[in-house]
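hey so i finally got around to running the thing on that chain from the lab meeting. sorry it took forever, my laptop kept dying and i had to restart like 3 times. anyway pasting the input first so we r on the same page abt which one it is
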Amino acid sequence: MMTNDPFRYRKRRKSEIVTEEKKKVSTKITGNEYRALSLGWDIAIPIFAGPLIGLWIDRRTGSAGTYSLIFLGVGILLSAVQICRYIYRESIWTREEEKRNKE
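ok and heres what got predicted. didnt touch it at all, straight out
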């Protein structure tokens, strides 16, 4: 056996063990992660559902695509509102996390 084995493990100091225990991350999805995962659906559903509802109304009323365009605009507007709400909440969460890290 070689004594100067470069792959031999060294003993850890207590401070390294303590910091490693603090770094354990939870695998549970919290509200922040859930909100980030659902953002795609918050954008996609209004943009696709709006024109579908508009198309259904157009067929029932006999108009030539007017409601489809109106509901497409409403869907895009709702998606933009959802994005703004997400950005606002994320900025609040970020500020709170920075405050916690400073303490």
